[in-house]
Amino acid sequence: MPAGFTTNLYVFVLAAFLGFEVIKRVSPLLHTPLMSLTNALDAVVVVAAMIIAGRHETRLSTVLGALAVAAAFSNMVGGFLITDRMLRMFKISGRKKQ
Asked: N or C: which end of the chain has fewer CB within 10 A?
């Protein structure tokens, strides 16, 4: 196995574990701001996946890049829809008393 692959796999596993531990400890009150932040990060992932897919180095990298674009884009759109729905729950409904 190449040394670069092993290093990348090690970083991926550590990042996944750290991300899981951080998200698990977030209070429900902070969920909406955190969701908005992850939506912004998903936008960065979409751009990076588009760059990878556009390089056309190998057929596999192009296919995986296109799948990454689709997955990150659907995650981003779904996150924005959920965040919008959660924020609408906090809006004051009805008429104001005068």
From this structure: C
Query: Which distant-in-sequence residues (6+ apart) come within 8 Å of 32 by Cβ?
Result: 83, 86, 87
Residue 26 backbone dihedrals phi, psi, to 5 degrees: -80, 135
Q: How far apart are CA 31 and CA 85, in angstroms?
A: 13
Q: Identify the domain containing residue 68 by its residue range.
A: 28-89
In the chain, how many domains are there?
1
Distance CA 51, CA 61 (A): 11
Mean pLDDT over residues 29-55, rounded?
A: 76
Backbone angles phi, psi at 96, to 5 degrees: -80, 145
pTM for the model stands at: 0.56
Q: Is residue 19 part of a domain?
A: no
